[in-house]
Design brief:
Elements (H helix, E strand, L loop, with lengths): L10 E6 L5 H13 L9 E2 L4 E5 L2 E6 L6 E6 L2 H4 L3 H11 L16 H14 L6 E6 L2 E4 L8 E4 L11 E6 L6 E6 L6 E6 L5 H13 L7
Parallel strand pairs: 6-8, 8-10
Antiparallel strand pairs: 1-5, 1-9, 2-3, 3-4, 4-5, 6-7, 10-11
Length: 220
Amino acid sequence: MNRDEGIAPLLRLHAIAPHLTTGELLRAVSRVLMGGDTPPGGWRAGRSGWELRHDGFSAVVNGAWDGPELRLRWSAAPAMAPRTARLLSDIAAAAGDRTPAGDARSRPEPGEAHRAWQAVMRHWGIAEDAMAEVREPGRLHSARSDGTVVYVFDHIGPPEPPPGWLLRSWLAPDTGGFHCSVRHSAAGPRLHVEAAHPDLREQASALLSAWRAHLPPRMC
């Protein structure tokens, strides 16, 4: 939860744009989110970099050795989640980042990983209403009427970043618990568990280890 705003952003991402400068990324984000290079109030220097908030969005841009980093949060994620890849592409286009596209990558099949995840949930004695699944972008299928769950298996996985960009982190939805997905890498599909809050990271590591133990090495 973002205690400063009193809301819990449902979607977060962290991406790197290696072919852009920090200034180019700042201008591109402004153009896409605000419709111009100089939004009202402008970017403000914060503890983590340059910060911009507007209409449910929170954006942070800072320079790094491998390219400027972009962190985005949405407070209205269900409406935005299906369009996240398009949003990143629009930002890349607004910055003039026209890195040639590489070979198309197919998404890993989550079936085997999902069965192993279910086995871990049973072994840990996790209640049915503490689990949920994401089968459509931005839509959480849960047994609880209030949508509050702890363990989420995401069949969709993260959005595809623009060619040449790196997606470092993705969490949708933020349930206050653990987001589990299968992600593509150069070595093949890999399991991923992300904790919504820093104090849950140790438990996330334990969950990832248990999940890996139920699958062959190629999925780990």
